[in-house]
User: Fold these one by one.
Assistant:
Number 1:
Amino acid sequence: MALSARSLAVVASLQPSLQPLAVRFAERAEEMGIPVELVQGARTPEEQDLLKTSGRGVTKAGALESFHNYALAFDAVPKAYLSLPDWNPTGDAWATLGQIGKGLGLNWGGDWSTPDLPHFDTASWVSIADLKAYWEQFKTIMPVTVAPTGAALAMLAGLYLLWRWIKKQYR
């Protein structure tokens, strides 16, 4: 699987320890029959404020209130949904993508009270409060090491085996 130039740029914008997870996410999605485009990675505080105040309802988070501001989040959209209004929020692929991300130990925005289906971040590894405090003290992004947990890898392996079994049943 080859990532598009846009997806590669998103991966490059992320903290180094998150980059392999973003690539693995895209690979797993394609294996499950859902090729994705990574459409957003790191954002500056200014870009975050512009999104918040755009009136489009893209985010409720202001500057330094999003994992995107710390290069610890990415947004992924099924390629089949890219040209659809609002990226087809009722599409079947979202639940599968959410499971893939959670299987890698990522937090999925689709689980929020106001869902953000394309969003995946590292909320289980570090808090926004800690990231913001580090930023305010050192005026730089706090380096964070992320890695999938054993339980997350086991869940992902189970999902993959289930998918293979289902695919075999319907050939």
Number 2:
Amino acid sequence: MTRITQGAFSLLPDLTDEQIKKQVEYCINNGFAVSIEWTDDPHPRNCYWEMWGLPLFEIPDAATIMYEISEARKAHPGVYIKINAFNNARGVESTGLSFIIQRPAYEPGFYLVRQEGKGRNIIYTLQSYAVQSAGEGARY
């Protein structure tokens, strides 16, 4: 079975809610703005996941963010959900921490497509089985 490895902690076993809460507290203590995002297609080049609500700026406690995580899980039980923490210390919102907090029971993975390009160059692309299983506009 394929396991998507994107973001921090992706090579570790899935984090428990208590471990997620500790990471959220770390983000709050460092002044990061937290956002919750979800997708059914975690392609490595798909950096634009669907946002769950608005980014959570200046939240004083982890309970608020954990509540939003719980609501996102209820609304989207069979997809990937991740947390992004944005650091604006340099005057721009850059990602300070990003990690997956939920995975579907079955991760369909990707397949490699090989094509010959101009001058016999070989072009490789990754295609997602998740996208292949449902046509455009049918996934959302």
